[in-house]
Write a structure and sequence with these properties.
Helix content: 10-25%
Number of helices: 8
CATH superfamily of the largest domain: Probable tRNA modification gtpase trme, domain 1
Structural class: alpha+beta
CATH topology of the largest domain: Gyrase A, domain 2
Largest sheet: 6 strands, mixed
Order of helices and strands: HEEHEEHEEEHEEHEEEHEHHEEEEEE
Number of domains: 3
Radius of gyration: 21 Å
Strand order of the largest sheet: 10-11-12-9-3-13
Length: 369
């Protein structure tokens, strides 16, 4: 049931009425009224890990870019070498400011030499759009904001292919991880990518609102579990996927955040923030984002201090009691000398210190992906 104290000024997705019918508990997220859970966080989490679940992620920003020399124009905005992409491939990357900080983490879907789709976070959509447009102002590239025109659904879990395929014209089994295509869903135009934010195999489907509503109903009838932001958060944290605004932001660099794999200094030309990243790559970073496992079941929450030898040395960015892992886990920034696997630290929780150790990321890795 919807919370009565949720402000009427919040935005709602085209699936809002369907979600309310399913008696979801709602919450505010980045200016949107979104479902935090339906049947329960643990049940939804386990549905995605063991079967299949679906998420309404229509609140995310969706930009279509078109024009000549598209990839060359985008190259200066990200540290990843987009020229490696071929049609139907995608790249997870970040927009950087001149200080090497992360403006947002995004996915670039390369469709053709003159066309690409970019998906951005809901809370940074306007900031991202302004940034991209300002840097493409002297290029022939045009940006079309599809954010309010299209529904975006995430169908995630080991049974996602089986459940989604009956509604799709093309053979989804031929789509590689981080591949994408234009196709038809329920006989109407659609964009589908084999991407997601859960650590499981799955698909993200972009369609017109009325198609999205019909697809949501059809999937629910066919045994796909509706899932909320609560399960989305525990799933992504087990997979050690960063949440913008908590684990990464304008003041963290991709090298600090463990995203070195998307920084292609050797094959790239100039890009915003390159000088800072070059210095960090040479001299090393002073802090790193690490995975922590609590020795007990006390949960390290966002903002809790990390303590070593009596001194506060860092801060927890995300933490939960992980349903699949069965342990209290967290992401946190610590000094580089404390970032090695096995290092012991303490987390301050309500004035008391509790032991934790640095562990390998991700905390969970699917056998299906």
């Amino acid at each position: 049931m919807a919370n009565s104290n949720i402000s009427d000024t919040l935005s709602r997705t085209p699936l809002y009425d369907l979600i309310i019918e399913q008696k979801a508990r709602m919450t505010e997220f980045s200016g949107w009224e979104m479902p935090v859970q339906f049947t329960g966080l643990k049940l939804e989490h386990e549905a995605v890990r063991n079967n299949v679940g679906m998420f309404d992620i229509s609140h995310m920003g969706k930009f279509s870019l078109q024009g000549q020399d598209l990839i060359a124009s985008l190259q200066s905005l990200v540290p990843s070498d987009l020229t490696k992409l071929t049609s139907g491939q995608a790249q997870y990357t970040v927009l950087l400011n001149p200080e090497g900080g992360i403006i947002d983490d995004i996915i670039v879907y390369y469709q053709s030499e003159q066309e690409a789709m970019i998906i951005v976070n809901a809370g940074t959509k306007d900031k991202d759009k302004t940034w991209i447009l300002s840097h493409l102002a002297t290029t022939p590239i045009t940006l079309t904001d599809l954010s309010e025109e299209q529904v975006l659904l995430a169908v995630q879990g080991p049974e996602s292919l089986t459940k989604l395929q009956p509604f799709v014209d093309d053979d989804l089994s031929q789509l590689q991880f981080f591949g994408h295509l234009k196709t038809k869903v329920l006989g109407k135009p659609a964009f589908i990518a084999r991407t997601g934010y859960t650590g499981e195999d799955g698909f993200e489907v972009m369609v017109a609102p009325e198609v999205g509503q019909e697809l949501w109903r059809s999937l629910a009838v066919n045994g796909v579990t509706p899932c909320g932001l609560g399960a989305r958060d525990t799933l992504r944290l087990e997979a050690a996927m960063c949440l913008y605004g908590q684990d990464i932001d304008d003041h963290t660099s991709p090298l600090e955040a463990g995203l070195k794999w998307l920084v292609h200094l050797e094959s790239k030309g100039d890009f915003i923030g390159r000088e800072v990243l070059e210095k960090q790559a040479t001299a090393g970073v002073k802090r790193r984002l690490v995975g922590l496992q609590m020795e007990g079941r006390h949960i390290a929450r966002h903002g809790y201090p990390i303590v070593s030898e009596g001194e506060i040395v860092g801060e927890v960015t995300s933490g939960t009691l992980a349903p699949t892992v069965g342990k209290a886990i967290a992401l946190a920034y610590v000094p580089t000398e404390l970032s090695k696997i096995g290092k012991k630290v303490e987390v301050e929780i309500r004035g008391k210190l509790y032991p934790a150790k640095v562990v390998k990321k991700p905390f969970y890795k699917s056998v299906n992906r």
